[in-house]
């Protein structure tokens, strides 16, 4: 067995041991197909006030500019689908990915361990771990690595488990065996396009980020435009509509990562509890949570916006 195959098999076995759903590998290089798409998306202002999307255009498309002399992009998926959801059907809703401990911390630790075990096994390997916090087109790399296809809602989808998972990468200077993309299985389905409460999926495979409920409830720092009143389907942080209606997500299975389990009080809170939430309750329920990104003032703004629909 040659060293590339041996190292590839080792990395995939280690990823599985660390609890990742799957692992795919691509040759590091310029993303030719994505370049014009990203340019057009930015030109049409579909990133709204997410100014950071305009930065590091070249790095977004070429991992060798992020990690010098990198040879491989190792893409990993980690399931976050919960075994139970919020109890009160009338309560403002939180996107499932934010139920437990902030995924950035959980995944970063796993990636550091993975890189460390690779270095122990192979010798001197340089690389960096990325979890949604650097200019890496993670969905494009995951699709290129055969982990799924990018659906009409612009999420990565797999036939086996749908789309409720995080995507992360290790970019390393090690030659490996490379995977190939899988085919698109969206077919004629338009469930996500039809269900989007704010018509953010402007055409198949194109999401106008500036119309997305996740953008309004997390990224937008000013007041939410009045035109969208009554159109949020009770989402106060993020939105899962386009995933909830996707037929492939009927295959979603509950994760087995204890850190992603929510605090019991989060699931128990009623509509009234949320509408009367205090800074103290916010700090307790969302300790180490991704929801802290909105701060108490931001979440409260979102709740009041839903209340006055």
Automatic annotation (TrEMBL):
Tell me where the signal peptide lies.
Answer: none
**UniProt entry keywords in alphabetical sequence:** 4Fe-4S, Cobalamin, Cobalt, Cytoplasm, Iron, Iron-sulfur, Metal-binding, Oxidoreductase, Queuosine biosynthesis, tRNA processing
Q: Which GO terms describe its molecular function?
A: 4 iron, 4 sulfur cluster binding; cobalamin binding; epoxyqueuosine reductase activity; metal ion binding
- The residues that the entry says bind cob(II)alamin are 60, 132, 153, 156, 167, 214, 239-240
Catalytic reaction(s) noted: epoxyqueuosine(34) in tRNA + AH2 = queuosine(34) in tRNA + A + H2O
SUBUNIT field:
Monomer.
Q: Report what the protein is called.
A: Epoxyqueuosine reductase
Its source organism is Aquimarina aggregata
């Amino acid at each position: 067995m040659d060293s590339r195959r041996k190292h590839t098999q080792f990395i995939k076995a280690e990823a599985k041991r660390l609890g990742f759903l799957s692992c795919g590998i691509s040759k590091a290089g310029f993303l030719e197909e994505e370049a014009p798409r990203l340019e057009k998306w930015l030109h049409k202002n579909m990133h709204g006030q997410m100014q950071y999307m305009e930065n590091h255009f070249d790095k977004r498309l070429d991992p060798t500019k992020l990690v010098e002399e990198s040879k491989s992009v190792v893409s990993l998926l980690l399931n976050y689908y919960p075994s139970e959801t919020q109890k009160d059907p009338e309560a403002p809703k939180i996107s499932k990915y934010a139920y437990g401990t902030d995924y950035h911390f959980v995944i970063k630790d796993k990636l550091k361990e993975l890189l460390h075990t690779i270095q122990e096994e192979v010798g001197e390997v340089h690389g960096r771990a990325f979890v949604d916090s650097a200019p890496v087109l993670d969905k494009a790399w995951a699709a290129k690595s055969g982990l799924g296809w990018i659906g009409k809602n612009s999420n990565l989808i797999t036939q086996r488990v749908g789309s409720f998972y995080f995507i992360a990468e290790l970019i390393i200077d090690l030659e490996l065996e490379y995977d190939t993309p899988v085919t698109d299985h969206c077919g004629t389905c338009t469930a996500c396009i039809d269900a989007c409460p704010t018509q953010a999926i402007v055409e198949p495979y194109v999401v106008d980020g500036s119309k997305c409920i996740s953008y309004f409830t997390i990224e937008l720092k000013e007041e939410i435009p009045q035109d969208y009143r009554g159109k949020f389907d009770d989402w106060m942080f993020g939105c899962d509509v386009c995933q909830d209606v996707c037929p492939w997500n009927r295959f979603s299975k509950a994760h087995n990562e204890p850190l992603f389990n929510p605090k019991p009080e989060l699931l128990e809170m009623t509509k009234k509890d949320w509408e009367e939430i205090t800074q103290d309750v916010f700090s307790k329920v969302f300790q180490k949570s991704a929801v802290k990104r909105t701060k108490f003032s931001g979440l409260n703004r979102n709740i009041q916006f839903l209340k006055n629909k």
